[in-house]
Amino acid sequence: MVRSKDDFQKAGICSHAYNRQSDCTKAEKEKRVKTSQEKVKIVSLSNATIIPLNLEGYKIHSSSALEVIHLCLKPGQDIPLHANQFDIVACLIKGEVTLNMGESNIPLALYDTVEVEKNMDRGFTNYGTIEARLIIIKKL
């Protein structure tokens, strides 16, 4: 669908979105920034919900479709094998961790991302000498 310049202006979008010119008025720019901020929710660890587990964990996002968890594991600490009723995606963002699945212990490299299907036993172990951090996305 092709839109006219008037359509963009009525929606409060800078005219350069239509004609690629950067001559927005100050009011247009301020309206766009305010509208964008109203649609954004920022959660930091300092204001995230603490996960009630025997490890450091924070719920940094929650919706009907997914949850995002930030987990911290101390050296030698583990999350025992367990199964859940949902798929997960995990990404190692700091440290040295193994993904434990049954008898298999799979070392993850920094920024490795792994998907584990629901009802599969999974766990994690920090085998390094520093704190490890994982981002876990639960597909609800």
Q: In brief, what are we looking at here?
A:
The chain is built from three helices and ten strands. By secondary structure, it is of the alpha+beta class.
CATH fold type of the largest domain: Jelly Rolls
Mean pLDDT: 85
Strand-pairing-aware structural class: alpha+beta
List low-confidence stretches: 12-21
First-last Cα distance: 34 Å
Largest sheet: 6 strands, antiparallel
| Number of helical segments with 4 or more residues | 3
Proportion of residues in extended strands: 35-45%
What does this structure look like?
The protein is α+β, with helices and mostly antiparallel strands. The protein is 16% helix and 41% strand. The chain has 2 domains: 5-38, no CATH class; 45-139, Jelly Rolls (Sandwich), CATH 2.60.120. The chain is built from 3 helices and 10 strands. The strands form 2 sheets. Strands 1-2-3-10-5-8 form a 6-stranded antiparallel beta sheet, with no helix packed on it. The protein has a 4-stranded antiparallel beta sheet with strand order 4-9-6-7, with no helix packed on it.
Note the topology.
Layout: H1 5-10, H2 16-19, H3 26-38, E1 49-50, E2 56-62, E3 66-73, E4 78-82, E5 87-94, E6 97-101, E7 104-108, E8 113-116, E9 122-126, E10 132-139
Antiparallel strand pairs: 1-2, 2-3, 3-10, 4-9, 5-8, 5-10, 6-7, 6-9
